[in-house]
Amino acid sequence: MSIAEKGETVLITGATTGIGYELARLFAMNGYNLVIIARNRAQLERLQKQWENEFSVKIHVIVKDLSKQSAIEEIMDSLEEHNIDIDILINNAGFGLFGPFIETPIEQELEMIQVNIVALTYLTKCLIPKMLRKKRGKILNVASIAAFQSGPLMSVYYATKAYVLSFSEALTNELAEHGILVSVLCPGPTHTQFEKRANLEQSKLFQRNVMNPEEVAKIAFRQFMKGKTMIVPGATNWILVRSTRLLPRKMVTGIVRKIQSERNK
Asked: Taking every pair of C-alpha atoms in the chain, what is the biggest distance, in angstroms?
């Protein structure tokens, strides 16, 4: 049964895999039209055909690599060309990179900052004005439990997610009076393509209390639509988040380093 108001449209970045895919499917299932964005045209068009047939919603596909500086302007041009207004924004796209900072490629780290921070911020900036005029709208930014502490061996990734958390909490305060809801999703380790791209497949970090993306997305969707500001799926993840706020930061940093250093033999 649809819960969407007539004609409401959701834009989701990173919509072809993992949490983004599961969130996109949940919104389509509940009657929302979608704008789905990712790099893989074949996957996007397959989802477009499948979900339009299965859920009787409209799906607009935009093939973009958010690590490119021109991507957001090109997305906005496509929305304007097709006369699409966005009611709900899901900034899901992001990736990580494992390794000592002195060894990791700066090119990949700059791309990470572009995707995890710059594209997220720019897209939000571009879509807010119409929400302000309508005095309604929703924004969900995907951070991580990594946002609550620094992360040796993934220093840039952890820092980008700290930005997303801080940015989202500030926007929640600024935009509430204008009728716009802003939430931030902070999942723990989740079985997606993230660990493969970040070179974390053999890390014990992804062997303990790992959730599946469908489970994370269902919790996120339910709590987001209820208006919850900070969403941390899973009891273990909530405990970790709260404990990092109680322990000395230097101790937490050491613990994170130890966990991320452990590799399966």
From this structure: 56
